[in-house]
Amino acid sequence: MHELIVIGGGPAGLAAAAFAVRKRMDALFISPGLGGRTRRKLLLPWVDDYQVIIGEETIQRFRSQLDYLEFMRVRNHATKVQPIDDGYRVTIADGHTYDTRTVIVATGSRGERLNVPGEDELEMRGLCYSAMTYGPLMVDRRVVVVGSELLALRAVAELSRIARHVTLVAEDEGDLDTEAGRRILSAPNVEVRRGCRVVAVKGRSYADTVVLECDGQQEALSTDSIFVEKQLIPNTDLVAGLVELDPCGFIKVDSRNRTSRPGIFAAGDCTDASAFQVLMGLGDGEKAALSAYDYVLGLPLEVKPCEE
Ligand SMILES: Cc1cc2nc3c(=O)[nH]c(=O)nc-3n(C[C@H](O)[C@H](O)[C@H](O)COP(=O)(O)OP(=O)(O)OC[C@H]3O[C@@H](n4cnc5c(N)ncnc54)[C@H](O)[C@@H]3O)c2cc1C
Fold first, then answer.
1. What is the pLDDT of residue 39?
2. Domain extent at residue 101
3. Distance CA 300, CA 291 (A)
4. Mean predicted confidence (pLDDT) in 64-92
5. Count of C-beta atoms within a 10 Å radius of residue 272
6. Shared domain check, 48 and 36
7. 218 or 54: which carries more pLDDT confidence?
8. Closest Cα to atom 12, ligand 1: which residue?
9. What is the CATH number of the domain that holds 43?
């Protein structure tokens, strides 16, 4: 039986596994690849490489620590985590199972896609899924945000402080008519296209046009960049029913990255505490690994209040 299994090879999982190696834990690392979402980088004609590689560079250090540790790595998807005596059994896609005392789930989340023509070809070429990350690159640009819920409103709020003009394309009312929504959408450089949906994304080298359908009529809208901010979907199926999830499916964790089940910890974008940034994921992974280590050492994980 292993002491720890880390599931997921993004920043959170890499940091957790690197910590476990340093502590000489008997750990296994299950992930189809290394780097997670940091492997993708937005390309735009006016953006130089150095402006967008912070996440990737940081992660490279952790990757190189783990790359050579083949014996502790399983290159596959985990499909199930189930309780056994004194720990957990993790099943991977080919049916193999591995037993462990503790588990760190660091499987990340994915953005809901548009599923329209042009999306696959132009993804990360002007069409992207993270205003939180790439908003700062949009100084004085015209941008389109797609979505109607808090995620989209957040993107509009951020981009309207930086970009020249922001168009929000909202298929339904979502959170638009809330107090925050009304305030954010009242900015002078924000325009809302209600009841419109994106039916195609176009561009020769970079996405520079969205085709909208509004009241059955199609129209082309030119733009410098498109941010799809519909919904984040956490990759948490493998622990659904085992640990407590929030209504959107994110794993609930406390300040020590414990889930509702002793011995299972979670880190990064799959948790309800994530800030969806590389550095946060790294810190989270390290914290979860420290908690798993303390658990294996038999130390109490409660935060003891200081005496007066
Ligand atoms: C397009 C884009 C660009 C971004 N750029 C930046 C940036 O420049 N700077 C920044 O700070 N943040 C950036 N972010 C945000 C940042 O990438 C994420 O916050 C961060 O990667 C989250 O780390 P994570 O380890 O929690 O999850 P992820 O990076 O999503 O990694 C999850 C890992 O788990 C694996 N996995 C999933 N399911 C399973 C399973 N069942 N079994 C085994 N493995 C599994 C995946 O293969 C992946 O390796 C960007 C996000 C996006 C979408």
1. 67
2. 2-110+232-297
3. 9
4. 88
5. 16
6. yes
7. 218
8. 277
9. 3.50.50.60
d(CA 225, CA 123): 11
Q: How far apart are CA 301 and CA 208, in angstroms?
A: 51
| Residue at 303 is within a domain | no
Residue recorded with tokens 């798993």: 292
Token pair in block for residue 26 = 């008997």
Looking at the CA of residue 269, tell me the nearest atom of ligand 1: 26
Spell out the long-range contacts of 116-120 with Cβ–Cβ below 8 A and sequence spacing 24 or more: 116/198, 116/199, 116/200, 116/201, 117/199, 117/200, 117/201, 118/200, 118/201, 118/202, 118/203, 118/207, 119/201
Tell me the CA–centroid distance for residue 269 and ligand 1, in Å. 7
pLDDT digits (tens, 9 = 90+) for 137-164: 999 999 999 999 999 999 999 999 999 9
More confident residue, 302 or 286: 286
- Per-residue pLDDT band for 34 (boundaries 50, 70, 90) equals confident
Task: For residue 219, tell me if it sits in a domain.
Answer: yes
For 158-192, the pLDDT digits (tens) are 999 999 999 999 999 999 999 999 999 999 999 99
Structure tokens at 221: 């809208």
**Polymer length of the chain:** 308
Distance (angstroms) between ligand 1 centre and the Cα of 302 equals 29
